[in-house]
Amino acid sequence: MDDKGSDIWPHKYNLFGVDVSATTYDEALVAVTRAAKAGRSACVTHLAVHGLIEANQDLYFRSMLNGFDTVAPDGMPVKVALNLLYKTDLSHNVRGSELMSRLCERAAAEGIGVFLYGSHRHVVDALRKNLIGWYPGRRIVGCEPSVFRPMTEAEEETLVQCINDSGAGLVFLGLGCPLQERFAYEHKGRIKAVQICVGAAFDFLSGSKSMAPVWIQRCSLEWLFRLSQEPWRLWRRYLVTNTIFLSKLLLQLSGLKKYTRPILDKR
Predict the structure, then answer these.
(1) Distances, alpha carbon 68 to alpha carbons 43, 121, 196, in Å
(2) How large is the average pLDDT for residues 241-254?
(3) Which of 31, 36, 171, 262 can bridge 63 by disulfide, Cβ–Cβ 3.0-4.6 Å?
């Protein structure tokens, strides 16, 4: 395979009009690491049910995602949908926080620089400290918090220059969905690294929020754990989006609905 070719990335399948990658941790780890070492500008994200439904209902967001190199199945229902529709035989979903941990471990071993962008200053500083402590030899070449507003053109140019000058091969984005995906898409080609959208992984790995115990993750009950942590914020999301997800899955399974796969032209 050519490191500069599209064939280094996992195969994608149409799920409600979104190209979702049928990938595993190991496969994603290899593809992202190879791209980072080759200095490729690339975009990677993870979609659970909420993000997938948002993309299905938002043409621009859906079009952006279809320009990504990898869209991993974060939520267990997304993994199950790929298996049902395309017989991909995936045994696990690919969570953003877990892939980030594995990539940081691999990057430490291979000397790949890591840049962190997003969240609050205290969160990103704690994340940087944890990553250095967990992975000896880890090169955190830069970390910047979000400004929580649209950046000026000058601020944007400064940030891009900072990332490129740092020599980072991996740029982890913790801006939340869909802001982080928009940032990654709009800076593909300008940022000379693999941008990986990991959202709440910044909170989990910094210790700002509690992660579900491993046994809960293995039982596909992480959604229930998160609901117990933030019931007033999440109950409507889970009730509404999960219902929409199930109905769309049934429509696609039955062949009653065909979903288009738009891709933006960045020229």
Answers:
(1) 5, 28, 10
(2) 92
(3) 262
Contacts with 43 (C-beta within 8 Å, 6 or more apart), sequence order: 67, 68, 69, 70, 181, 184, 185, 188, 194, 195, 197
Quote the CA–CA distance of 135 and 157 in Å, as a whole number.
Answer: 31
pLDDT single digits (tens) 75-127:
889 999 999 999 999 998 999 999 999 999 999 999 999 999 999 999 999 99
Give the model's confidence band at 15: pLDDT under 50 very low, under 70 low, under 90 confident, else very high.
very high
Q: What per-residue confidence (pLDDT) applies to 263?
A: 73
> Which CATH number covers residue 173?
3.40.50
Domain count, the chain: 1
Angle subtended by helix axes 231-254 and 222-229, to nearest 10:
150
| Cβ pair 61, 112 in contact under 8 A | no
H-only helix segments in 9-95 = 25-37, 49-57, 59-65, 76-86
pTM beyond 0.85: the answer is yes
Cβ atoms of 52 and 245 within 8 Å: the answer is yes
Q: What is the mean pLDDT of the chain?
A: 89
In a domain, 126, yes or no: yes
pLDDT band, residue 3 (cuts 50/70/90): very low
CB-CB contact of 187 with 162 (8 Å): no
Is there a domain that residue 161 lies in? yes
Q: From its phi and psi, is residue 111 left (phi > 0), alpha (psi between -120 and 50) or beta? A: left
Q: Give the pLDDT of residue 2.
A: 41
In 3D, which of 40, 41, 28 has the Cα closest to residue 3?
A: 40
Cα(69)–Cα(20) distance, integer angstroms: 10
Residue 54 lies in a domain: yes
Domain-located, residue 3: no
